[in-house]
Amino acid sequence: xxxxxxxxxxxxxxxxxxxxxxxxxxxxxxxxxxxxxxxxxxxxxxxxxxxxxxxxxxxxxxxxxxxxxxxxxxxxxxxxxxxxxxxxxxxxxxxxxxxxxxxxxxxxxxxxxxxxxxxxxxxxxxxxxxxxxxxxxxxxxxxxxxxxxxxxxxxxxxxxxxxxxxxxxxxxxxxxxxxxxxxxxxxxxxxxxxxxxxxxx
Length: 201
Description:
This protein is an all-alpha fold.
């Protein structure tokens, strides 16, 4: 049971007591999950929801196929509030799905690092985005999002870390997170809940 393991860390134990248990779910449609993730980048949760709904409305409220996304004119995507960059990134994801494949069965056979390497080939998809996908779409239990600002801020506050020396800061974060393995995804979820800044799914 992951809560038993994570409770060895007193700080996380307190968060478990406050928030109860979390569960991870797996998403079948990885392509649309990744598109939704790109849509929500650098936006507040509220605005991201509005844009995502507008995006679905282009396809009669349903999740579009990669073919439908590619067939959508860039100006149509821009009209719902996407920047030029996001418009091309979303279409890059759809194109990659058709050309290389993004089936969840295929991704489940890969290790976390292999999935990161595979999907960051897509222009507009960075490591952080794939880490979120590993956690919230593929249900991987041992992902540590070291570059996530919410995680960093929570760890600075809870573990009295100092980010002045970036290299040392990362090493300290990794050292602390090793104790959470093989359940680092859940530890991240508790840290986000502490700051109440869970990333938009």
